[in-house]
């Protein structure tokens, strides 16, 4: 499967993902993979329109939530879609967050292991699935049981550590938020609007603390240091350097998430620079 150096991460409902002309343009700009966010359903019906209206894009889920989507349903969805679009589907799965899942969120590592067992039983090949992974234990599980890892809301320093744990031959595709904006107040304002929800989620905050940030960095909407580490903002060259930092740290692909209001216009500017 050829995923390309650049991926594009966005909500599965983004209209451009159902527009054949927009998808063709995105592919021409160098984006090889579309990552469908916001817990797409296990039957993978959100992946089919993107695959049907594009010719060579790979579609990945970022991510199917293991608490909401039974493994047998995910396996059946994978089998149906992968048969129709060979070598163009990547099943990303993950444990999500207690705040959204509720009381059933217990022993997430064990849940991931049993879910992967279910995907094995359903015939989903190891090379057709990746795991949302932040901490060392789940990264090691991704290396053992999947094609690789899709860390979300991390830094190049995390990417380097993830590559060390995954070893060679495994996919590593971190997500990276970007804002094409040189005004610091405007850029950080947009970034904080997006980060507000994530600051309250322990899966992310614990990971940031492991990588040298402090409780003070997490307070009051996030310190400038944290915001600037998680969201690359500035001119085209600054964003290019921020994306390249993940590649230099060991990423195979970077899944870019644009936070500017006019996403497609921003991607038209960034695509030629990021190739």
3D architecture notes:
This protein is α/β, with parallel strands linked by helices and 275 residues long. Helices cover 47% and strands 17% of the residues. It has 13 helices and eleven strands. The strands form two sheets. Strands 1, 2, 3, 4, 5, 6, 9, 10 and 11 form a nine-stranded parallel sheet that branches. It has a two-stranded parallel ribbon with strand order 7-8. Helix 3 links the parallel strand 4 and strand 5. Helix 7 runs parallel beside helix 12 and helix 12 crosses helix 13. The longest helix is centred in the C-terminal third of the chain and has 16 residues. The mean pLDDT is 96.
Task: Draw up the topology in text.
Elements: E1 6-11, H1 20-28, E2 31-37, H2 47-52, E3 58-62, E4 64-65, H3 71-84, E5 89-94, H4 98-101, H5 108-121, E6 129-131, H6 136-145, E7 148-149, H7 156-166, E8 171-172, E9 175-180, H8 184-199, H9 202-210, H10 215-218, H11 224-230, E10 231-234, H12 236-248, E11 254-258, H13 263-274
Parallel strand pairs: 1-2, 1-11, 2-3, 3-5, 4-5, 5-6, 7-8, 9-10, 9-11
